[in-house]
Amino acid sequence: MSAVAVGTALVASLAVYGEYNASVPVATEFRNLELGCALWGISELSVYLSPSTAPLAELYTLRFLFSGLTAILAIVFVAEYTQSELLTRPSVRRFLWVGFGAAMVLWITNPMDLAYTTLTIESFQGINLVIPTFGPGLVVYFVFVYGFYVATFTILGLFILDATNVYRKQAVLIFVAFFVVVAGTIVFLVGGVPREGVDLGIIFNALGGGAIWVAIYRYEFLAVVPLAKEAIVDTVTDPVLVFGQESRLLYSNAAADAIGVDIEDRNTDAEDLFPGLEAAIANGDVIHLQGGDSTVERERVFEPAAEELVDHHGVERGQVIVMRDVTERYRREQRLDEFASIVSHDLRNPLNIASLHINLADGEDDTEHLDDAEDALDRMEELIDDLLTISQAGYASAETEPTPLAQTARAAWDNVDTGDSSLEIPTNTNLHANRSQVQELFENLFRNAVEHNEPPVTVRIDTHEDGFVVTDDGTGIPEDRRDGIFDPGVSSAEGGTGLGLYIVQQIANAHGWTVSVRESEDSGVEFTFEDADIGVAP
To answer: Which UniProt keywords apply (predicted)?
Structure first.
């Protein structure tokens, strides 16, 4: 009896440990199993120590209930551990529990002695023993349970064969633990005990429970690998999404949260979360997402790739999607496409003009055609300078510093042939930016104001808490032409490259600024730059 008491105390301790250390996988099933064992042990001890024989039949019914419950919970534990498709199937689970419930009802009612024919009560070394003679109904139930035991052992064995090294060691330990538990029931049923009526099953369950505890807590076989994988995934800079069956979101890393995935999105369908995601994966396309505070960050471009998640038995359980951030590559490709378009179209025109006029030149005194050819070559040089500026604009934000706005704007003004036009600028303002690129931005704005208006023109720079404004008092831009004003190749000035305002937008985008155009108060043009870091110069 003392061994039963020790075993009961041990499994009760394991149940408490499982309750307060439920962070590892299958900890809940382990706690339930050990709790069932503890209740079995308590009911066994209550039979042994009852001061009267009157309640022994009822106490033994409780003992039968909890021992049978422990058998079912052991099967459930293995099912959850192996994630067996068979044992985790709802219909199989219902069948298992219905069988257990039917056996309990059969024992309590015992119609036609189907559960037991007799319950013999004896005394042995100061303890009470109840010795049942099982009826045919209980024999059928034992066959039912041991059929599940055979299936469970088979599933565990196959799991061991398929498992990797660390899982194999842990699976073998759980296999041994389950074998010890089942062995205890066999010993009782075949009478392999010191005295008929003595049940040592709780001792076998205590040994098995200890082995399982070692597997899932002492060596953390079940917890270490998933935690390590989660830690690695959380350090990945690309968004990672894990979808379960029916494409429901189960997990997202920190990078995914940064693009707008929220804990409330759990169980959201993949297509609802990111429209076009599945098509992009299937076709190898990219998707555009909004996220972040600045202009550059507000639209990011991602190239999603999916990998199916397959369990130990080859059954597809979901998929993991890695959203590779290809924003910079996408922008470089855009600039390359624009570059190719300009080279193939805009540079070819002045080259053809120069070639034509050189061929038309008759002799040394025929300078008119040569002058036209020189003008065409000058235009080509201007285009090349603009193309170089475009190619460098994307890297402006990498080298930013406090830049005196007045000094930079004045240097830009001096580099442009402004004639009698004038510039009005604030004198005590700093702009956190790439100085050379901002000077290039101002040069293109000033050149645009001078070349597209009758001189003289007054250009004014003003600042506000979120950026700055560049205005002129010229004739303005017709409203129907403002939408495409930043497109490459758009120009209303004779001989213009059409790249000036495009360069302005590229430099602004590289700094994370937004730029818009509208009519100024003087009926001229007003360019507004927002999201810029403006401060007072020291």
So the answer is: Kinase, Membrane, Phosphoprotein, Transferase, Transmembrane, Transmembrane helix, Two-component regulatory system
